[in-house]
Design a protein that fits this description.
The protein is α/β, with parallel strands linked by helices. The protein is 42% helix and 12% strand.
């Protein structure tokens, strides 16, 4: 993990991770497929190029999947990193599996149990603050959904992080344009959110969330920033399953997913 792999290596890893997610869905159609697929390249880049997992809690990096319903993508990445057995993926949600619908800290590589949206950033701010207080070198990466921006707790954490100048905190928003209540632009238009974060003191980047090179450039800049950084990564919900891309559909038929798996 975090071993500085090349862009080409990361792209191949992303393909494998996407295939793992599709196979998991074939075994359990209750999974949040669209949201998991949109976050693949984000998680691939963070986990396999930047995340440093060795050392004590203040000198290693932390990864918080605040949008916990995208757990299949995280599990697939952790399996590729060798932290959980690959065969465990196909048992997701089974009574004899360690993998549940949302991340649990009992799973190797999971730093925070998540699922209730909006809490991940607050936790991340707390960890980043503790690292600063103790003079550690660790960084905190928080992966959020764009729908989470509705949560008041997010706005409180956002301002607190800026006030404490937490330059060891990097947030990546999976900006796929959808949330439970509908289209993001109908509820909280995404075009003004970057201006809000910038206004309170964050460094703001906007990138292509399916281009590992684009994500890489943004994260590289973020870790050299003197302020907390947020990256709005534009993504496609359901990326890789053409029939559900950029739609509200979360439950494509098994045959549709099998075709996507062949073409992945």
């Amino acid at each position: 993990m975090g071993n500085g792999k090349s862009i080409e290596d990361l792209e191949l890893l992303a393909i494998r991770i996407r295939k793992h997610i599709l196979r998991m869905y074939l075994n359990d159609q209750s999974l949040h497929l669209g949201s998991s697929l949109s976050s693949v390249e984000i998680l691939t880049t963070v986990v396999f190029k930047y995340l440093r997992r060795t050392g004590d809690p203040i000198n290693r990096d932390w990864l918080i999947l605040s949008k916990g319903h995208a757990a299949p993508a995280l599990y697939a990445a952790l399996a590729e990193a060798g932290l959980i057995p690959l065969e465990e993926l196909e048992k997701i949600h089974s009574i004899n599996s360690i993998l549940q619908g949302h991340p649990e800290i009992s799973i190797p590589g999971v730093d925070m149990s998540t699922g209730s949206l909006g809490q991940g950033l607050s936790f991340g701010v707390g960890v980043a603050t503790a690292i600063k207080i103790h003079g550690g070198s660790g960084r905190v990466y928080v992966i959020m959904g764009d729908g989470e921006q509705d949560e008041g707790e997010v706005w409180e954490a956002m301002t607190h992080a800026a006030a404490r100048k937490l330059d060891n905190l990097v947030v990546v928003v999976d900006n796929n344009g959808f949330q439970l209540d509908g289209f993001i632009d109908d509820i909280k238009p995404k075009h003004y959110l970057p201006h809000v974060w910038r206004a309170v003191g964050w460094k703001v980047h906007i990138c292509d969330g399916h281009s590992i090179a684009s994500i890489d450039r943004s994260i590289s800049d973020a870790i050299n920033s003197k302020a907390p950084t947020i990256i709005f990564a534009k993504t496609v919900r359901g990326k890789g399953v053409v029939e559900i891309e950029n739609t509200k559909s979360q439950k494509p038929g098994v045959e549709v997913v099998k075709r996507a798996l062949i073409n992945a």
